[in-house]
Amino acid sequence: RDFTYSRHIMIAVDGSPESVDGTKFVMKHLVRSGDLVHLVHIAVPDSAGAYLSIATPPGTEFNLDLDYEARDEFWKSAVKKTEEMLNDFCEAVTHDESGGGDMTPFTPPIELDCILEIAGWEPVGELLLQKAKASGAAFICVTQHHKSWLEKFLYGSVSNYIIGNDCEPPIHVFVYHAPKRAEHAETKEMK
What we know:
Elements: E1 7-12, H1 17-29, E2 35-43, E3 52-54, E4 64-66, H2 68-94, E5 110-116, H3 124-135, E6 139-144, H4 149-155, H5 158-164, E7 172-177, H6 181-190
Parallel strand pairs: 1-2, 1-6, 2-5, 6-7
Antiparallel strand pairs: 3-4
Helix pairs in contact: 1-2, 3-5
């Protein structure tokens, strides 16, 4: 890049309507002229069994092998879905009637980033912090979804992870608190 941006604003996106709303809010109220916006999505396997196969021929011991063909298919599919989601997401955010928002009349430059979490055990929040450090982000913006205690226990919370982990150099964290799912549906119907 030949141009030096005043700030790098990293927005974690997951393709949900709440994430779109959070990104629009950040674009309108936080991003200003000279900023570069990074829309970042982390693609992870849905489960540990996404590309593992149990290979137990008759008369042999239990064996867990990596199904390389299934793994490659999974990642090709994940990359394609993520590219489509990020392009649709960018389109939804940039074609909003608010333009650049309160801080700038122009839509800022946007960089689309997809991180493939191959190992499957690295916390998504940690990957976002690593990306933020690498890009020199001044802000990390995440959407906090309303999850049940069971969902938080099983899947964790990216926003809580980022808030609870310090990093050097310090990065400002902005959390967009999404309305509850029922409230979100009612708000959309009213528009």
